[in-house]
Structure prediction request, 82 residues.
Amino acid sequence: MYKGRSQTVCGSNDIAFSPICEPGIGEALGLSYAIQWAYELQLTNVDFEMDAKRVVDYYNKGSDDISEFGAIIDDCRRRRCY
Prediction:
């Protein structure tokens, strides 16, 4: 979901996953898709809200996680500067 300057809802997007991965990877993929969607809509100055503490902490602070989870979040961090 995204809101305009007046905080009214302007649109939303929903993607369904089959539960074939661990929850942290699913949450990281959700952030990745949200960043891509914001880019495609040419949105700027976007704030993303999440309730997945592991994703938020890793995204904000970084880590030396070389797992699939770490690779997805590192990609999200690189793409934030589009």
About this structure: The mean pLDDT is 78. The chain has three helices and two strands. The two ends are 20 Å apart (CA to CA).
